[in-house]
Design brief:
Blueprint lengths: L5 H25 L2 H6 L1 H16 L5 H22 L6 E3 L6 E2 L2 E2 H21 L3 H19 L9 E3 L6 H20 L8 H18 L1 H7 L1
Antiparallel strand pairs: 1-4, 2-3
Helix pairs in contact: 1-3, 1-8, 3-5, 4-5, 4-7, 5-6, 5-7, 5-8, 6-7, 6-8
């Protein structure tokens, strides 16, 4: 298949993520739930690969991707091994290979969330402060949606059984500099892929959250 230009790649990438997320929702709720949950690393890897494929030529994209990946992994290692930043928690097996107790794909997820939320914020406001506030709010909103479902899906689980307030404060501390550097480096993503990817993740976990009782019975 030949791509005539960036628009073609973006359309194909958007189609793929819609297909995977919708299939995942249907599969987890009405199909082979365990199989679809176990396929989470594949889905997250594809999301990250497509994000890089669509946006890699954007000025500053590689820098913010590497920074958010690295900072995210290091912050999670502090959390898992020492209880710093987010509280006392451990990762399950659903997210794949781990380094010092932290799945490698968590770094990719920090990159995805940072870039997608900042790209949306950048199109809403020109000023730095509102952009950072919106980006932070979007990241915290998604984490708030994921936390009740994470133990059920074997993503991660807090020692107390649910995410403490420290977790959200920790997210703020880690996400703030990442949001700042996205705009400081003047990353200017024009593609709509980032918007679709964030929306799909939000819808995915929102639907699972609404069906949490069904989910508990299935897994």
């Amino acid at each position: 298949m030949k791509f005539r230009g960036p628009i073609d790649i973006q359309i194909i990438a958007i189609t793929i993520i819609w297909l995977f997320h919708v299939s995942g929702i249907i599969g987890i709720l009405y199909g082979n739930s365990q199989w679809f949950v176990e396929a989470t690393p594949i889905n997250l890897s594809i999301n990250f690969f497509l994000l890089v494929l669509v946006c890699w030529e954007t000025l500053g994209f590689i820098k913010i991707t590497v920074l958010s990946f690295t900072v995210g992994i290091l912050a999670e290692m502090l959390g898992v091994n020492f209880g710093y930043l987010f509280g006392s928690y451990q990762y399950g097996e659903a997210l794949g290979w781990k380094l010092n107790g932290v799945p490698i794909l968590i770094g990719a997820n920090w990159s995805i969330l940072t870039i997608c939320s900042a790209a949306i914020a950048a199109q809403l406001y020109d000023q730095l402060v509102p952009r950072i506030i919106i980006g932070l709010s979007l990241m915290l909103l998604l984490d708030f949606m994921i936390e009740p479902i994470a133990p059920i899906l074997d993503f991660w689980e807090f020692e107390s059984g649910k995410a403490p307030m420290q977790n959200y404060f920790g997210w703020f501390l880690v996400a703030f500099p990442l949001q700042f550097f996205y705009h400081f480096w003047k990353v200017d993503i024009k593609h709509w892929f980032t918007h679709h990817l964030f929306l799909l993740q939000l819808l995915f976990f929102m639907i699972l959250l609404l069906k949490i009782n069904t989910l508990q019975n299935l897994l």
